[in-house]
Structures are given as structure tokens and as C-alpha cells.
Design brief:
The structure is a homopentamer.
Chain A (H helix, E strand, L loop, with lengths): L8 H5 L7 H20 L3 E2 L2 E2 L5 H48 L13 H21 L4 H18 L3 H18 L5 H26 L4 H26 L3 H22 L12 H15 L18
Antiparallel strand pairs in A: 1-2
GO molecular function, one term (chains A, B, C, D, E): chloride channel activity
GO cellular component, one term (chains A, B, C, D, E): plasma membrane
Family (chains A, B, C, D, E): Belongs to the anion channel-forming bestrophin (TC 1.A.46) family.
């Protein structure tokens, strides 16, 4: 996620960081070079005059804009739903930690190291890290080991789905407390709804990560957008002459740019600049839950690196 | 579902897999042939000059694009809601299995074969398979027999609605545990909310499968799109001459293509390339739940076949 | 609801069943006759040449298309929300029946005629039928009598709101079971959430049935669409001559057609071809719930009549 | 809310009731008179020819239509959410009454005057009336006195927020029943979720009533629409001459009309014809809940007055 | 939030308060000055005639309008979701206070100063204030000290996340009451769902505050809008001559204005005129909850300052 205050209108115009320009540079360049060639040849293609006129472009352009708008909305909805699911992870973790610490039959021990409940909370922190690593295809082992020790990390690595393994661990701890009479059945059930809520958030993230927008859309829009922009010079050259490359550049920047932004944010769990700052969110959860345990040696919040929070 | 990484711009342009082209090939071809004929006859139809000019097309085209956009959004919403419902099946199954294993009065037995609770979890796995087969009109019998044995499979086949039969089976098992004092009433009620959640997801899938987008929309849009594309040559031929077939091809590709993609994804439970990978999801559930039971002989995740996951 | 597989492109083009054509036939015919008259009089109205040119139509047409699109989306949302509410009725009924049969302190009796719980489930079936009749303004008496006997039918008829009366009946039965110690308070509360869920679905259906889209929208769009289509010949006649009636027909078909489809589905509980198949849904509920009671003499699912399920 | 069956196409065209025309009459008239003046002066303004041509209008018109469409959707969403919240009030009230009557430890007394539970239900009816009066800035006192007697009405009037005061009253009654052992804690908690649901619906209505669509939108769209319509004659006069006033009238009717409808329904709790029929809804609740208490002397449903239900 | 009744059409046209004009004044002025220069030079740029014609602008303008519409919808959705979350804070607080006061085993003490439960309610009021200060980056200390005394304020300041600290305080109080037998476990769990609801609302607000709309959108739209408006004079000057600056002003006002409104409301927690009135909402909560405690010395509702409620 790009962390930047909106600069004034002029500086915004020339901002580079966070721009989608690098991703579409080559397409834009090809398109503009072609348009320049067309402008200088006055629309002749091998001795044959290509007279497209602007009419076909206004017919196609409208449909293209509406369909790009549709895909863009779909991509942004995925991005925002993903963020919302991580918001669920945040507040479910906090509420689970709060209820575990306050609603058991015995008050929480002053020293977390003495208290079996602290393990429940630490497994919840581990869950957030494990979900992040799962979505980013990285190794959650070191984070789990740091939080829960080498034994739990080994069992974690052996499980087919680490997040689910940790939630089962939380459930097991809860069940033991229930059978030991440390917690009322009703309170245990209430706490377990938060565990189920974490499972739901994890399944939601998996759903977004594993189910793309149907590929046929990407193909259809990509092709129409490219045909449109590469033919546009032939439609404009008789009307605006040497200004053709410039107008084609602006049009292509808008269409390719929106295509590329949508393409980037539709898979929002990665490490690109416009993706969600999962690591910063996990750090926040870690700080909140360790503090709920009464620990005082808390890690600092994650700071953006070169204006980007990952 | 098509499993493919987005290739670069150029290769994407010529990709065939996942394209909607095969479905609309004949309509596109007819349209282009007609446009070619119109171009060569200079818009004459049996000695009669048809002068449509582009104006009517910009009047109709706008409405058409907006209404195609509407139908497309409706189709995609069905697709995504269906996926979300299967996401519910995933996390409800997992949470049910977790709670059954952890929150009973006695800890889960180390050997699943000894434990009555394992039957509950296996019925839940069976439910996911049964729902998939119901939505795809295939026979769930073999999957049920594999998971629950021949007796339960026979009862399953006799039921009018297999999914509901299995959920009642889960409920019956839960009721027996409740009456035997193995589980607190509050915990049983909490577990049963997941059974109700599975019933809700199944009813949601039935709803999408049995209630199409009103047929009048399909008719209206299909007719307008075809009239539009088949008349378009007469509107363009005086303006762009021999380029008419090419422009008509691009316009028809966009309109027919979006019509066809929307048509495919609006019934998302089938076996076409852009449909949901229900079998892979069921396999995931099976792996997760068997692992929750402590089994170690887990089936592998389903791999895509020729780039398509079904 | 129209039950039809999508035919191929050509046959779809000439399909009549499910078309909105009959509803808009007279408006279309008037419009086309007028356009023909304008074409033959070359746009003269009583010796006065009406030169509208296409420009005003592209100005108005855009706004019209966007606003028709808005109303269409609103109408479809009502249709789909109504279907979703009936989906709630389906799964709430099933879950209520399941919990009543499985989670009481005593197992369900093998013979439903002996079991007081069967009355609860039959009242729930009656509720679905009563809601259907309420929304369609028909008499639910015979259905209630068939399911619950003459006494309950008499009390049902005397109630001001039959659906609510039946839900109170379910609640009363539940309360008696609770006071008789047949069911744990926690389980009774869980079952009652399904009764509340049915009440919510009923209130939602009432809301859709009793609150139309604000009438001012209907007026505004209807008027603009008619003015647009009836004036359109004057705008096109100088450009495309004798083809005017044909183009006007296509434009009017699109605009009037969408207006009419939206108008039909915005009140989705009726008996028109594009309305929801409430009777078929009620039959499904009846089959599922009777089977849950262990009855074996089940009615068959409702079959479509001339391609339409009501 | 306007209660009217959709008349046929012709009569709909000339319908006056429910039309937005009276609200925009003066703007429309001014606009048309100006257009007539422009048509007769051939676009001269004090010897200076104003040649705007239609081009700027197609550039601005598109943006205007899209943004009006946005605001319209936002306004309609507020209207529909408000209706949905009142639907919540309806079914929460009914479910609360049902549970209070059926799930207590002792069956409901046959005579409501003898039963302390009747007070709970009557306070719930009072809540609906109080919410309506709060949203419409009218005095709820008489309704409360009629339902709950002079003493409760006095305390109600003294409270800073009447609806909340009544819900606290329901909660207090419930707490007394709980402490007297008349109701199980679990059932009391379930009933209280409905009280919380009513509080949520009330807060939702307050939110809609107190938070307008940001005023800057209203300003921006209003200004652009007026500039557009008042300048339009100068753009059309050279093209269509004396037909200018007529076309301007149609365009202005569409834009001003949609602006005015959106403006009316965005604050849906008032007494204008297109507002929600809160009084009729409150009456429905009163009938349902009194009947649930077993009373037989029920008020009749509210009838529309001159086609409008308030 | 701007508190203003909609004036009549004419006065609305010249309203200044609540207008977005001041924010976009310099961009608008530059644009208009440039357009005037172009009009007087007849589109010559250093002896070189720039003939853009309106065609490129209708091609780009459409896409621009659709994409601005998309961003605007996204911004408004953030604004409205933020308001909805604060509505949740309102009704959760009220329900928590109601349940704490009514559903404990002992009735509430007449004097709040004597009652430990009053502390729970006061911490809830403090939570609302703390959330507001957190979102506005201001110091919550004085408000907390006023409500909860110096000791709690010191602990609050030491916590890494004040809101979470206060909710943990509410949970601790609840846990003590539970262990002291003052409240049934089931009721405590019900009350704690409101605490979790407040945590969810806080996490939702944090999500909106910390996750902007992807920066690439802002860049893309800002750039296209500026290029469009600054080039527009060259496209119009040959058509409408000296009227160019005026038309450019209207177009730029619409595009820049919508860009600026969207930009303002997309971060809705600030102190700008169109932002949410968090202070007024917190005051409402304070009044409601103190009254629920039975206090009579209530602060007055916040009044708008110069027409703006903050």
C-alpha cells in the first residue's frame, strides 16, 4: 500500500511513485511510435490509404469504457473485500483475546508465562502470520517458532493447512479449559464463535486468492483495448494530423492504465505497491494481543519503506 | 476454472485457452461474411441502396452497451455469490469439525475408527460431495459409499434430497451425543448453527441453480445485439468501404463475446472452463476434515487438467 | 418462471415464449405506423416541415438509457431479493424441522402421528403456503386445512395475519415443550431463532410487495421514453428515408421492452411468466419437511406447465 | 407512498397524481420561456450572436447524466435502506411479542389486562410510534398515553430520547421477569436480542435522517444541470429553429425531474407523496401485536387518502 | 457535516457555504485563463495552429466520465460505510448500557455513584470519544479524565491502542461481575457480543482510515482530467470562438469539482465541512448513556457552528 499524502494538483501531475506507468510503458511506447508513423505516412499502409474515420471508435469506445468500468469495479470489490476480511481478522483476534483474558472463572494470571490462556492468544497471533504467509506463498515457520516455540512450529509445518491447524489448537485449548471447569460452556461457545469467525475470514481470503475474475473477461477486454488503441491513429490522422500521436498517447494511457490498475489490485495479497499491507496488519495484531496479555516488551508498528507499506 | 498466470500483453493477445471465441465462432463468421458481401456490393441489396448511416447505431449502441453491462453485472454477481456460498461450505465444515473434536465433554479419541464423532465429520464431508453432485446432476452414490459405507449410501439414495438427508444425519448424531450427556446443550446449539449454515449455503446454491436471470432479458439483449451487428455493415460501408468487415468483426466480437461470457458464468456450477471448480473445493474440504480427525492418509489436492480445474 | 434451455442463436432470435413482445405490442405498432406515415410524408406535419435532426435524440437518449438502466437494476434487485427471502424460507424451515426432530430430550417417535413435534413441523409447512397465498392474494384456507385439519384452519382464517398466526402457533408448541422439560432452554432458543428468521423473511416479502419503486420514477421514465420514440421518426427521416420505421421499431423495442421487463419483475410475487415460482418452492418445502418427519407418502415436485413454473 | 395500479400506457402518460411536475414547474417554465425567446431572436443576445453548437452539450451532457445517475442511486439506496429498517422494526416487534407470549415459564394469561407481559408488548408498540414521531418531528405523547397510560407518557416526555427510553422500559420488564424466575436466562437473552435489534433499527433511521448526502454533490449537480438547460437553446436554435423550446422542455423535464425525485426520496421519512408510509406501518405493528396479546378489539389497517398512504 | 435546508433553485445556485469551489479555485482559474488566451489567439501556439477538433474529447470524455463515476461511487461508499460504523457504535453502546442496567441479578442501584456497573457504562462512553480522537489524531486524554478520573486516564495514555484498552476494561468489569455471581453467564455472553461489536466498528473505522483507495487511481484520473480540461480550448475554439472560456469553465467545474468532492469524502473522519460530525455523535452517545444511568445533569446536544457540525 502506498502511503502518501495527496500533493497539490501540480505535483500530483508529475508524481512517479505509485504510478502505474512502469507497468504499461512498453505498450504505451509501441502505440505512440505506431501513431507517429501513421501521422508521418498520412495513414498510408503500403500504398493503401486506410480511412477508418472516428465513427467506429465512438461505437466501440463506448462499449469498451462500460466494460472496462465493469471489470474495474469487480477488481476493486475484490480488493476491498480482502481488506474487510483482514479487518475481521483484526477485531476477531482482539475480541478473542479480550474474552479469554476476562471471562474465565479465574482472573487472568499477572504473569503471562504462568498462564495456559496465554498460549491460546499466542496461537491466535500465529494464525494471522500464517494466513499472511499462506496468501503470499512464503514460509510461516520462523514466525510460528518465534511465537510458539520449536515444538508447535514442527507440528505446524507438518499440517496440510497451517491456519486451520492453529485454529484447531485454539479450539483444543478452549476444550481443555471447558472440561477443567475453568470456563462456562456458554462463554466457551461465545469465544468459539470468534474462532469460527477467523476460520471464515481465512476461507474468504482463500476464495479471493484462488478464484480469479473469469479469464475470458481479461482476454476480451485486453484484446478490444489493444485493437482499439492500435487502430486509433488511422481514425484520427485525417482529422488532427501531427497531433495524432499525442491524443493516442492520452487515450491509451487511460485505457491501458485502468486495465493495469485493475489487474494489479484484483489479486490484492501480493507484494506490489498497490497491494494490501498484510505485514503491517499482522504486526498491529501482534502488538494488540501481546498487550492484552499484559506484556510490556512490544515490537514497534511497521514503518513504510520508501513510501510503501507491505 | 481456468488456472493460468497472466502472460505478457502480446501473448495474451493470441491466447486461445479460456477464450470465448469457440462459442461465438459461427455468429462472428456469419456476421463478417455478410459485412464482406455488403462491402463488395457497396450496400446494395437487390438493386436497392440501403443507406443507414452510423447515426442509428450510435443511438442504439449506447442503450445496448448499458443493458449488456447490466446483464453482465447480474451474471457475475451470480458467479461470485455462488463462490461465496461454497466458501461458506468450506469454513462451516471446518468449524463444525473443529468444534466436534474439541468441545465435547470427553477429549477426542486418538483413533478415529473408535469414535462416534468421526461419523459426524464424515457425513459433513459427504454433504459437500452430495451438494456438488446435486448441482451438476451427477451421481453422488460412489462418493457417499466411499466415505460412509454401503448402508448409509443406500439410505442416501432413497432420500428425496440427499444433502438435507446428510444434514439430518449430522443433527441426529448431535442429538444422541446431547442426550448421552457427551456435550453441553449450549455447545450442541453452537455446533448446530454450523449445520444450519450448511443448510443455508445449500439452499443458496439451489436458488442460483434453479432461478435463472429472467428469460425476457436474454431474449431482448440477444435480439438487439444481433440486429445491431447484422445491420452495422449497411451503416458503415459508405464511410469506410472495404474496412467494413474488419470493424464489424471487432464490434461483434465485443458484443457477442460479452453476451457469451455472461451466459456461461451466470450458471456457475457446470463443467465448462469458466465454471467454478467444485470438485477441487470438495477435495480441499475432504483433506481438511480428515486431517482434523487425525487421519494421516490424505488424498492429494486436485490438480488442474489442461489448465482447467473443475 | 420460464423454464427453458437456451436454444441456439438462431432459434433464440425467433423464440416467442417468454418474450415481452405481447405486452408492448400495441405501443410498438403505434410507434411504427407513425414512423411509416412520417417516412411517406417526408416529415411534413400538416404542410409544416418538422426538422428535428438526430442531435436532440443523442442528447436525450443518453440520459434515458442511463436512467432506464437505473430503474432496471432497482427492479432486478427487488426480484432477486424476493428470491433470496424465499431461499431463507426454504432453509429456515428445513433447519427448524431438523432441530425439532433431533435435538429434543427424547428421540423423535417413529410414527409422526403420535408425536406432538410433527404439529410444529406441519405448521411450518403451512406457514410457507400461507405466505404464498398472502403475497398472491389468494385463499390459503384449503392448504391449511389439508395440512393441519379443520380446527386450525378455522383459527387461521380468523386471524388478521395468517402467517404470523402460524408462527405464534409454532412458538406456542415450542413453549409447551420447554415447560414440559422436553427441550433444553438453550436448544429452544436456537430453534426459535429459525422462527424469528421465518418472521423476518415474511416481513421482507411484505415490504417488497407493499412498497413499490417510487411512482414518480415510473412516470418520468415512461413519459420520456414515449416522447423519445414517437418523435424519433422526425429526427431520422431526412437521413435514412424509408428505413425510418425499421430503425424506430428496433429502438422502441429496446426501450419499451426494457421498461416492460422491469415493470414485470419489480413485483415478483405474481403469476406472470417471469414471476417467481412460489408454488413450486412451497411444494419443495412440503416434500422436504414431510420427509424429515419420516413420512413416505410424499407429493411429487411441481412440473412446469407449458414451460412456465408458477 | 403513492398507492396506484399502473394504468395503461396512454393514461400513464397524462397522469398527474404522483408526478414530480408541480415541484419543478417554475424551473421548467422559466427554461421554456427562455428557449422560446432564443428561438424567436434566432440566438441573438443584445445584437451578439451566441453560437454554442450542440458539441459542448454532448461533452457536458454525458458527465451530467452519469453523475445524476450516481446521485439518484445514492438517494434510492437511502430510501430502500430506510424501508428495510422499518421492515426490521416490523419483524423484530412481532418476534419479541411472540417469544414473550410463548417462551416464559408460565403460559400467557388468557386476559392481557392481568399479565405483566402485556406491558412489555405495549411498550414495543409504543416504540414504533415514538420512532415515527421522532423521525417526523411530531409529538408522540398522545400515542404513548393511549397505549401505556398517563404515567408512562409523562416519563416518556421527560426522556431526552423517547425511543431509547421505551426500549429501556422493555429491558427493565424483562430483567424483573428474569430475577423473578419467570423466564430462563437463555430465553431472556434471546428476547433481548430483539430489543437490541430494535435499537439498531432506530439508530439506522437516525443515521439516515441526520446524515444527508454531502451537500457539495447537491450544489455541483444542481448548478451543472441548470447551466446546461438554460444554455441549451443557444446550442440547438441554429439546428432545429422553432422546435427548440419543445426539445429544451423535454431535456429539462428529464434532468430537473430526476434531480427533484432524488431530492424527495433521499429524506424518506417525511409526509410528501413519495415518502414512506410510516403511519400505516405503525398501524400494522399495532394490529399484529395487540392480536398476539389475544385482544380482539383491533383498529382497522390505515387506508390511503386520495391515493397516498402516509 | 453541513447542516442546511435545501434552499430554492435560485438561491441554491449562488450558495457558497458547502461548495467545493474554494478547493478547486486555482485549477479552475488557470484553466479559464488558458482558454481565454487560446480564444484570443484563435488556437495558435507560437505560430503553429493546433487543430484538435472536438472528436478526441468525446472519445476521452466518455471514458473519463465513467471512471470518475467509479471513483466517486467508491469514495461515497467509504463515507457511508464510515457513517454506518458510527451508527453501530451508537446502538451497540445503547444496548450495552441497557443490558447492563436491566439484566443483572440485582436491580440497578438508584444512585449511579454507588454502582460498579456505572463504571462499565462510563468506559463505553469513553470508548466512543477515544475512537473519535484516534481517527482525528487528537488527544483523548481530557475526555477520558473527565469521564473516568485521573487514574484510568493515566492507564489509558500508557496503552498502545486506547480504544482496545477501554474495551478490555469493560470486559474486565463484566468478568468480575460474572465471577461474583451478579450476572448469569448467558447474559454476560450476550453483553459481551456488544463489546465485540464495538471492537468490530473500531476495526472498521481503522480500516477505512488506514487503507486509501489505491493511489494509482487518483493519479490516473487526476492526470486524465487535467490533460482533458487544459487541451479542451484547442478543440472548441474553431467551433464556438469567444465562448470557449465559458464552456471550458463549466466542463472543468464539473470534472474538477467531482474529483475534489470525492477526494474530500473518501477520508470521512476529518474536520472539513463535508466530513462526518463525530463530535456530535459522541455527544449523543454521552447523553443517552448518562441518562440510562439515571443521571439528570446531561450536557446539551452539540449545535452546528456556522452551519457546520463537526
Amino acid at each position: 500500500m502506498i502511503v502518501v499524502d495527496r500533493p497539490n494538483a501540480l505535483r500530483l501531475f508529475f508524481a512517479l511513485r505509485g504510478s502505474i506507468l512502469p507497468r504499461i510503458f512498453w505498450s504505451l511506447a509501441t502505440c505512440t511510435v505506431l501513431a507517429t508513423a501513421v501521422a508521418f505516412s498520412h495513414g498510408m499502409l503500403f500504398q493503401w490509404k486506410v480511412t477508418l474515420t472516428p465513427v467506429p471508435f465512438s461505437l466501440i469506445g463506448l462499449a469498451l469504457a462500460i466494460f472496462l468500468g465493469f471489470r474495474n469495479t469487480a477488481a476493486y470489490d475484490r480488493y476491498w473485500e480482502a481488506r474487510r476480511l483482514w479487518g475481521d481478522v483484526v477485531h476477531r483476534s482482539r475480541s478473542l483475546a479480550r474474552e479469554v483474558q476476562t471471562l474465565f472463572q479465574t482472573p487472568a494470571a499477572p504473569d503471562p508465562a504462568d498462564d495456559a490462556r496465554a498460549v491460546l492468544v499466542r496461537r491466535t497471533i500465529g494464525f494471522a502470520h500464517a494466513l499472511r504467509h499462506q496468501l503470499r506463498d512464503s514460509d510461516a515457520g520462523p514466525d510460528i517458532e518465534r511465537l510458539l516455540g520449536a515444538d508447535e512450529a514442527r507440528a505446524f509445518r507438518a499440517a496440510s493447512l497451517g491456519t486451520e491447524h492453529l485454529l484447531r489448537g485454539v479450539g483444543r485449548g478452549l476444550g481443555e479449559a471447558l472440561r477443567a471447569g475453568q470456563v462456562d460452556a456458554r462463554i466457551a461457545a461465545e469465544i468459539d464463535t470468534h474462532v469460527s469467525g477467523l476460520a471464515a475470514a481465512a476461507a474468504g481470503c482463500e476464495r479471493i486468492a484462488s478464484t480469479p475474475i473469469p479469464f475470458a473477461y481479461t482476454l476480451l477486454l485486453h484484446r478490444t483495448a489493444y485493437v482499439y488503441c492500435f487502430l486509433l491513429p488511422f481514425g484520427l490522422v485525417d482529422l488532427i494530423g501531427y497531433l495524432t500521436p499525442f491524443v493516442v498517447l492520452v487515450v491509451a494511457y487511460t485505457f491501458f492504465g485502468l486495465d493495469a490498475v485493475g489487474d494489479e489490485i484484483k489479486d490484492p495479497f501480493g507484494l506490489k505497491p498497490n497491494h494490501l499491507p498484510l505485514e503491517a496488519i499482522c504486526r498491529t495484531i501482534e502488538i494488540n494481543l501481546l498487550e492484552a496479555l499484559g506484556e510490556t516488551d512490544l515490537p514497534p508498528p511497521l514503518a513504510p519503506l520508501a513510501g510503501v507499506l507491505r
